[in-house]
Each structure stands twice: as structure tokens, then as C-alpha cells.
Design a protein that fits this description.
The chain is mainly alpha-helical. Helix content is 56%, strand content 9%. The chain has 2 domains: 148 residues, Jann2411-like domain (Jann2411-like fold, Orthogonal Bundle); 32 residues, no CATH class. One zinc ion binds next to strand 2.
Length: 196
């Protein structure tokens, strides 16, 4: 899949944002302005002015809208959600080489509020994924007790679990135990397994 480094970065920010949501994390991962500031610093989000509680509310609203893109049943539905997100935020595509980075595109309007900034940059990254015919890579973790989302960038689109570390391992252990149980119930299978 051909996605640029910038798109990849924007998707990383988005996935991290989505997984702060109570429905994904079990609790609010952005409980206050300090948490929102941490998020901005952690992801080196540029051109962010002073943040207020309005920003916190707006970012949470955008987060809810983006989660719907990952859970969308069809590309049509995902495309409409992305269009709405980008349109409501307003976009000003421009070239920049800020902070010593190579020339790259910023899509958010100069001095945009943080929520609009995130909506446009993540919205454009998702737009590129849709255009590339890769919308199905936007996934929800398949572990039954996990609601985190991720972007499956594996070559054969085979990833099933989020990268919270525990999910993949936990599910592999569960599958291993299930195989052992089956083997114990069926001595033939056990002998076959031992013979391998
Ligand atoms: Zn930049
Ligand atoms: Zn998970």
C-alpha cells in the first residue's frame, strides 16, 4: 500500500486519539486540559495555540465522529463521514518546511483550533486510505473485551488485534489453551501433536 510518511503520522495520531475514548479505553483518556496538552506534545502537533476547555470538548466531539469512520459498514458511509469532518473544519492546503522538516503538506487552516486541525489532518489521511481502496484496513480490535481501533498496515491485511500488547498475546494464549483442551479430550490429536 502506498501511503506517505505524513499520512502514516496522521493516522498514528488519530488512532492514539480514538483509543483515549471511554468506549475504547474503559475510561476517559483525555479527562482534562493537562491530558490534552500531553497529547499535543507527545505527537509534536504544530501550530497549536493556548488550549481551553472549549478545545477539550471539541476534540472529544471530533473523536466520536472519527470513531464512526472506523466502525462504518461501507466505504460510502466512511466517505460521507470523512467529507463532513473535513468540511466542518475548513481546509487550507499549503506547503511548509517548518521546524527543519522536509517540505510537506499541511491541510488545516493557519491558526485553526486544535479540533479542526486534527479533523482536517486525520480526515485527509483517511481520505487517502479510501482513495487507495484500503478502507477495510481501518479496524476495530477483535478481542471480545476490547473496543480499541487500529490501522492494519500488514502486507496481507491479516492483523486482528490492536497493539495494546495484551490483546494479541491474550488471544494467542486463549487459542493455545483451546487447542490443548481439544488435544486432551482427543488422545489421537495429542499423539499427532507430539509426533510433529
Ligand atoms: Zn508539519
Ligand atoms: Zn485490543
Amino acid at each position: 500500500m502506498l501511503i506517505t510518511h505524513d499520512t502514516q503520522c496522521a493516522l498514528d495520531v488519530l488512532v492514539d486519539l480514538l483509543n483515549t475514548a471511554p468506549e475504547a479505553a474503559g475510561q476517559e483518556g483525555l479527562p482534562d486540559l493537562a491530558a490534552l496538552r500531553d497529547f499535543v506534545v507527545r505527537h509534536e502537533i504544530s501550530e497549536v495555540g493556548t488550549l481551553g476547555t472549549d478545545d477539550l470538548d471539541a476534540v472529544r466531539r471530533v473523536r466520536t465522529q472519527f470513531r464512526a469512520v472506523f466502525l462504518a459498514r461501507s466505504t460510502q458511509a466512511a466517505a460521507e463521514l470523512v467529507n463532513t469532518l473535513v468540511a466542518q473544519a475548513g481546509s487550507t492546503p499549503r506547503l511548509t518546511d517548518h521546524d527543519g522538516h522536509d517540505w510537506h503538506m499541511h491541510f488545516f487552516a493557519p491558526c485553526a483550533a486544535l479540533a479542526d486541525h486534527l479533523a482536517v489532518e486525520a480526515g485527509m489521511a483517511l481520505a487517502f486510505i479510501v482513495v487507495a481502496g484500503e478502507r477495510e484496513r481501518l479496524r476495530r480490535c477483535e478481542a471480545p473485551d476490547c473496543a480499541r481501533v487500529f490501522v492494519d498496515l500488514s502486507r496481507n491485511r491479516s492483523r486482528r488485534y490492536c497493539d495494546s500488547r495484551t490483546c494479541g498475546n491474550r488471544m494467542h494464549v486463549a487459542a493455545y489453551r483451546a487447542r490443548q483442551r481439544t488435544a486432551a479430550e482427543s488422545p489421537d490429536a495429542l499423539t499427532e501433536a507430539a509426533a510433529r
